[in-house]
Structures are given as structure tokens and as C-alpha cells.
Amino acid sequence: MFDQLHFFASPRRNIAVVLPYDLEERLRQWTALRRKMVVQVPEAFTRDEWAYLVAFLDEANLRKPFRESFGDAEADGQAPLGALLRPRGLTGIWLPNNVSLLGPLTLILVSFAGAPLWVKVGSNAMDLTAAFVSFALQHLPAGELAEYLRGQVRIDRFDRQDPRNGEMAAAAKVRIVFGTDAAVSAIHLLPHPANSIAISFGNHRSEVWVQKEALTDDRLTALIRVFSIYGQAGCTSPRRVVVLDGSGADAREVQERLVGGWPKVVRADSPMHVAVANVMERQLALAQGWQAVVVQRNRAVVAAGELGLREPAGLMTLAVVNASIAEGAASLPPNIQTIGHIVREPHAPQWLELIARTAAKRFVPVEAMHHFGPVWDGGNFWRQLFEEVCLQS
Amino acid sequence: MSQLLNQSPFWPRDDASFLKEMNEICAWHLAGCPEYRRVWPDWSEARSFEDLPFLHVGVFKRQLWKTDAAGIVHQRTLRSSSTSGATASMVALDERSSALQGQSSSAILKELVGDSLRPLAILDHARALRQRGEVSARITAALSLRFLASEVHFLMLDDGSLGWDRLRAVLERQPRLLVYGFTWLLWQSWAAATVPEDVRRLLAGAEVHFVHSGGWKKLEAARVDRKRFDEGLLASVGPGSTVTEYYGLVEQVGVVFPRCESGFYHVPRWAGALVRDPWTLETLVGQPGLLQFMNALSWGAPYHSVLTEDLGRLLPGNCPCGRAGQYFELLGRVPKAEVRGCANV
């Protein structure tokens, strides 16, 4: 390992970043792994999860954190520099049970900060982070990325009572915690270095805003695809679809299109327990006053109803409500994360003004709802993996 | 009042009579339970059992369902024991149904263990009776045997162990005993426990009829199969002792499905069973699928027709054991899988 300066330029200033690895080589190695990944899906992953990881390891995507955080790469540091950035050091990542790709994705991003990594995975769930690292170590050629994963990445499986939580918090310069709000708070309450920083990813939920005229068949397909990956279990998965400035009949029409289109988008049968649970969720939604319809072969439940109804809770239950734009914004939950949009002019100033008044952290096309990146839950967490040295000439 | 209760539980029945009673009870709940009406808004009289409305068993975990009608006096809420940490089911009991359900369980259990009176030893705590407004499924199952009991004893101590002193006191007076426990509890607290020597001597001369229910999930994890279970219980007791298992669910209170010597479960004549495809809900004949149970006893809440998450297969013809009526093979629970998503799953 060696420290190497990399230079970046933005219209505002030029900066140098010191990295304990060769950036171009690391990019080459991750993308080389990507080619191996295309051939084989490890048992621990679903095909959707693996496909997303493959897409995430696209070189242009991997360069994005640097570009968004520092600017365009420069060959040398001839221009006057405004700042020097260096990795803060050991990064601890706490992952809860049943988490999907957040572990591997965060690991990939953090690997570009070059800091040693200590990952705590859930104690009673399939651990995708270790499964991904294991796959990588099997398929990477000997080189600095394999050395990093082998020598600087530690993955432990333990529960919330384990004393290793305290050891991690005491050692980490950066604590990245995924979990319930209570779990996140508990980790940050553990004794930790005074100069360490906390990055929290707590309870969040998301939804889709639709203008009926913008809901083409392609975008309907995208909506179904985005929801069907995690259902309500994903913080970036829509719990409800709000048909903006629509009527009850419009919401029913969107419901019908979703129900009709679903089997064409999701061809495989749901696992038996999901199909059976959908029967229950539909009945519960009906009992609560929703117009709930089950998708062919019990794949999902689509429930149309009024804004004030108690939201249906099923894993694969998607609610569709109609609301004015103001009502939609007013009814956003306080922990809103992503609003996926299917609207005519997403760049129109009205959306900016509206989003500014909400707690939403992302306003993105429905297709991009699950796209994880350096800016997440309201901040550029990846940028925070570095500390900044102010430079003035 | 179900006319079907007037005969022995495993005598042949006229399906048309049962369908008529089921249609009446469905209409009753549609009239008295608004939530149920919202689930089945367009239903009208069924011409076959498969057209009868049903509720998924899980809806009773999320909502307390009640039917209000003349003559219905709701009593306590029955709660499932939820041994695996899952959410408990809630079933609203009422006087009218309880009378029918008591009649039903008495008739079925009498078939299993005979009708002579003897002490009933229950593997539970007496304090389970004292919860206000609620009653556990475990205690309800145990007390469904009380009509066969000359006296009732609760054997569990507060620390969860079995009170052998209490058992000794009963055995010193009575060499015939009826013992009820949840399957895993009977194994853990009795069959796998160290029995004090003096109690062991008394048991060796006693005729004990063990009755258990509640499922095998915990014992499967402990690699205890039925043969080992039965042998473990019978090893310590005297001649003439038996082990009887039945299948039941809290959402079909009063109706139990005894397991016969051929290994099949039997449906009493005042109940019915269907098997449905999990993906289409079409009824299946001779193939495995989701079990649905119906009974004509439940008037205070719409748990008269329930789609379960248990897998089974209805078998054609008559059971080799000689009992008439429907019988089925139990194939376990719908397999669960891990749900993966974000931190807020």
C-alpha cells in the first residue's frame, strides 16, 4: 500500500486527495471482478440483487463519488489547491438483520476511501456482505484490491448485545449505522473517539408521485419493477402511489393498469408464503375500506383508496391514492426518503419549491429509486469519510 | 344450533345439511360484521363448499373480528400461545358459540380417550386462568378435557418446571390419569425430564392417557420424532397407557382433528375441510395445498371458515381406521423465507 496524491478540479476550487492505494488500479480490479460476476450468481443473492451489484460496479458509476464530491480528475496538481483531503481512518459499518445490498454497496464505496473497514452484520440473517467479499476473493486476481479485502476488511457476525459493538465504536473514526432509529441511537451512544463522526441511516420510507398523463406503459413497467424487488421491505421502495390532482376514478384506473401489467413484468411466481400472505393482506385491506385487488397468481396486492385510510401493511401490497399536490406533500411521512416521480416536467420550478418544503431526501425518476450513491439520506456520506485540510497560498 | 352435533363426530353426514348450515352462518356474519362484509361484498348463497367465503388465518392476528347480532354476548378474547414469538391470534368468544364448541370438543375427545372420569393433570399454570378478559389457547385446549375430569390439577411451577410433588399427590390416590400438554411442553417437562424415583414408581403402576396438541415445530428442531416422543412418554407409565395427538387451531376453537392410528387427521361431521392452491386458490382434490377449515359452530365472529397456512392433502375414500367423513394428511407449514430489504424491515 502507498499513499498517492490524486487531483480534482471543480469550478469552485482544486483539491488534492491522498489515497493509500492506486485509484486507477482499484477501478480496474473492481470492473474486472464485474466481468466475472456476469457469469455466476452466488447462492446467497437473488438474480435481481446480483444484477444490481453488477450494474453498480460499472466504472463510470464507481467514478461518480469522486466527481460529485471533488470534481473532475486532473492529471497533476499544477493549479493552486484549495484543500487536501485524507481518509479519516477505520470505518465501522453496522448492518441489521435482513438487509439486502446495503452492505456490499457501502463496502464498495468505502473501499474507495481507502480506510480499513470493520463490518458488523446481523446475527440471524443471510449475510450478503461476507458472501460478496468471499466471491470477490475467489475471483479477483492477486493484487491490491484482493489485499485490501483480505487484510483491511473485517466482517463479524454478532448481535446488538455483543461487547464487540463497543470495541468497534471505540476504534472507529467513522461509524456508519444502518438500522432502526433506536438501534442507530444506541450505537452512537457507545463511547467513541471525540474526533470520530457518525453517519446514520435509520427508518425511512418512500413513495411514488404520478401524474396520470405521464404514466406511459414504460413508466408503469418501471414502477412495477421497482416495487416488486423489495415490496414494502425496501426503504427506497414505494409504499404508496399518489395520483396527483387525480380523482378516485383515476386512482382506480392506475390500480387496474398496475394489476393488468404486473404479470407481464413479473413473470415468475411469488414464493408460496408471499402468495399466501397476499391473500391475507388483501382481506385486511378490504376490511379497512380499500378497494384491494390481488394480482394474477397472488403475486401482489394493489389497493386503491382514500388518502385518510390506514395504510395497508403487506410486504407486497402497494397502495394507490389520489390527492392534490398539496395534500400529497402534506401527507408525506416525517421519515420520507425518496419520492420517485412520474410527472410531466420534473424540472419545473413547482417541484423544487414543493420539495423544499418537505423532508424528502431524494426526488428522482421512479426508475432510479433504488440507485444507491454517495449522497444518501440527506447528505454526501462518502465525502465525510475524508477529513479536509485547508490550504491557502 | 348445529343439527350435526346430534350424532357421533365421525359418523357419515349429509353434505347438503352442512352446506345449508354454512350458508346460514355466512349470511349471519355478513349481516353482523361490517369488516367481513367489506371483504365479501358480493357473496350470495354458495352451491358448493368451495364457494363459501373464508378469511385467511392471519387476519385474526391483526384485527379483532366480532359479529354483533341478537343473542350474541361476547365474552373473553382467546389468544393463541404464539410459542415461536410470532404475533398472537385474537378470537372473540361468545356464549352461544362456546356452548356449541364445548359440545363439539367433548364429543370428539370422548372418542379419543373414553368417557370415564379420572383426574386431569394439565401441564400449565393455574394463573393462566386468572387473566382478565383473555384466555390462552393452551388453557382452552387443556380445559376442553375437563368434562372427563373428576378433578383438575395444574402441574407447572412458576419456574417453568413440572411440580412432581403435585403429581405424586394425585397418583397416590388415583392410578388412572389424563394428562394434557402442548406437544413440546410434554416432551420437555415430562418425557425428557428426570422423574423423581418415588414418582417413577407410582407412574409405573399407573394408566396414563396423554393428550397433546400444538405442533411439532420445536421438537423438529430438537430432532424428536413421533416415535421417540411416544416411546419417551410411555416408557415410564403402566400398562394400558396411551398417547393421543390432535391437530387444531385457535381460529377453529372447539373443533379438533384427532390423529388416528393410521396417521391421518379426521374432520368431525359438523366441520369441513378444503385444500386450495396457494397461487390460484382453486380447490385441489388429492393434491397438497393450503388447508381450509369450516365449522357451523362459530357465531360471535367470522372464524367459521378459515384458510390456514398449514399444508395438507385431503384423501379420497374411507380411512383404514374405519372413521367416516373427511380425513387429511398434514404436511407442515407454508415454508417461510427471509425477507430482505432495508434497515427498516
What is the topology?
The complex is a heterodimer of chains A (393) and B (345).
Chain A (H helix, E strand, L loop, with lengths): L3 E6 L4 E6 L3 H15 L9 H10 L2 H12 L1 E3 L8 E5 L3 E4 L7 H10 L5 E5 L6 H12 L4 H8 L1 E5 L6 H8 L2 E5 L2 H9 L7 E5 L3 E6 L6 H14 L7 E7 L3 H18 L6 H16 L3 E4 L6 E5 L11 E7 L1 H6 L5 E7 L6 H8 L5 E4 L9 E2 L2 E2 L5 E5 L3
Parallel strand pairs in A: 2-4, 5-6, 5-8, 6-7, 8-9, 10-11, 10-15, 11-14, 13-14, 15-16
Antiparallel strand pairs in A: 1-2, 1-3, 4-19, 12-13, 17-18
Chain B lengths: L14 H18 L1 H6 L15 E2 L2 H4 L11 E6 L10 E5 H19 L4 E5 L11 E3 H7 L5 E6 L9 H10 L2 E7 H9 L5 H8 L2 E7 L3 H5 L4 H9 L7 E6 L9 E2 L6 E2 L4 E6 L12 E7 L9 E10 L12 E7 L12
Parallel strand pairs in B: 1-14, 2-5, 4-6, 4-7, 7-8, 8-9
Antiparallel strand pairs in B: 2-3, 9-10, 11-15, 12-13, 13-14, 14-15
Helix pairs in contact in B: 6-8
Describe the structure.
The complex is a heterodimer of chains A (about 400) and B (about 350). In chain A, about 35% of the residues lie in helices and about 25% in strands. A seven-stranded mixed beta sheet of chain A has the order 12-13-14-11-10-15-16, sandwiched between helices. Chain B has about 350 residues and is of the alpha/beta class. In chain B, strands 1, 11, 12, 13, 14 and 15 form a six-stranded mixed beta sheet that branches. Chain B has a single domain, classed as 3-Layer(aba) Sandwich (Rossmann fold). Chain B starts with 14 loop residues before the first helix and ends in a 12-residue tail after the last strand. Chain B is globular, with a radius of gyration of 20 Å. At the A-B interface, helix 11 of A face helix 2 and strand 1 of B.
What radius of gyration of chain A results from the CA coordinates? Answer: 22 Å
Number of helices of chain B: 10
Most residues in contact: chain pair: A-B, 47 and 30 residues
User: Which architecture of the largest domain in chain A would the CATH scheme give at its second level?
Assistant: 3-Layer(aba) Sandwich
The average pLDDT value of chain B, as a whole number, equals: 90
Strand order of the largest sheet of chain A: 12-13-14-11-10-15-16
- Strands of chain A, total number: 19
From the spread of the alpha carbons, the general shape of chain A counts as globular
Average residue-wise pLDDT of chain A: 94
Describe the sheet with the most strands of chain A.
Answer: 7 strands, mixed
As for the number of domains of chain A, it is: 2
Could you name the CATH class of the largest domain in chain A? Alpha Beta
Question: What profile does the largest beta sheet of chain B have?
Answer: 6 strands, mixed
| Total E-strand runs of chain B | 15
Quaternary organisation: heterodimer
Number of domains of chain B: 1
